[in-house]
């Protein structure tokens, strides 16, 4: 801060500026001069009231625990980030603390401002909602990884070498869907909640297969390799490999 910040002229003021004022992120000297002018303007005051109402609604919500599979994926990403040569993270514990801070209520002001401002913009723009409905299209289904790239070639005793690449992917390959994966895991007596941390087609000792990485407790991965041609709810023979390793 230089102490010489200019107070934005208005009205009108942008929704972003009013949201920043509401969230308390403007320099104190700017906020002190801007707030009485904003509150004296009917349209700006309406936006501030909407932000207050949104904040009250969010604060009234009960705590929502993070799903286990989401936490596991974040832990996996942090573990990969903490590996030497990838990023200057001191330790996995420090990275997890940083994750918790980012997911905490410290960013609630920004979230509230964005949520309320978006609703206000739609309300103040005639036809905006209809335009949004007309133009919004569901994203096309895609699979992670290159369809043209050959699958990873693995040996049974070297499955851990593929963890880094498979964690980056969500490519079900010939299994196609998460429901098919769940059926194949059930056939092998393997229980797992949520989506895999990573999944990708592989070649296991000359045999086309699909490798899934599942959460297996703190600091561990369960590596499962499935034969898409033979696996299923009642087909345990479709599990080609199943091992648990420590996350690096």
Automatic annotation (TrEMBL):
Extent of Polar residues compositional bias: 129-147
Chain intervals for the UniProt region annotation (Disordered):
129-151
Which sequence ranges are marked TM in the entry?
Answer: 103-124
- Name the domain of life: Bacteria
Which keywords appear in this protein's UniProt record, sorted alphabetically?
A: Membrane, Transmembrane, Transmembrane helix
**UniProt key word Transmembrane helix:** yes
Q: Does the keyword Transmembrane helix apply?
A: yes
Question: Could you tell me what this protein is called?
Answer: Anti-sigma-M factor RsmA
Record the organism: Lentzea jiangxiensis
């Amino acid at each position: 801060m230089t102490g010489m910040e200019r107070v934005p002229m208005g009205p009108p003021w942008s929704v972003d500026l009013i949201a920043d004022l509401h969230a308390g992120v403007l320099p104190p000297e700017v906020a002190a001069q801007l707030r009485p002018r904003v509150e004296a303007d009917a349209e700006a005051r309406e936006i501030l009231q909407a932000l207050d109402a949104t904040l009250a609604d969010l604060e009234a919500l009960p705590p929502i625990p993070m799903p286990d599979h989401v936490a596991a994926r974040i832990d996996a990403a942090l573990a990969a980030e903490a590996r030497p040569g990838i990023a200057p993270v001191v330790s996995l514990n420090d990275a997890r603390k940083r994750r918790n801070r980012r997911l905490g209520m410290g960013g609630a002001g920004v979230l509230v401002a964005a949520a309320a401002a978006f609703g206000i913009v739609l309300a103040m723009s005639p036809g905006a909602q209809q335009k949004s409905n007309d133009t919004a299209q569901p994203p096309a289904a895609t699979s992670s990884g290159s369809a043209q790239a050959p699958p990873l070639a693995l040996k049974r005793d070297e499955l851990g070498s593929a963890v880094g690449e498979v964690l980056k992917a969500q490519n079900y390959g010939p299994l196609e869907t998460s429901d098919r994966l769940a059926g194949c895991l059930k056939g092998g007596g393997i229980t797992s909640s949520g989506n895999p941390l990573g999944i990708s087609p592989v070649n296991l000792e000359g045999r086309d297969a699909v490798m899934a990485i599942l959460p297996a407790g703190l600091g561990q991965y369960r590596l499962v390799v499935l034969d898409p041609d033979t696996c299923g709810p009642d087909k345990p023979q479709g599990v080609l490999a199943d091992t648990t390793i420590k996350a690096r």
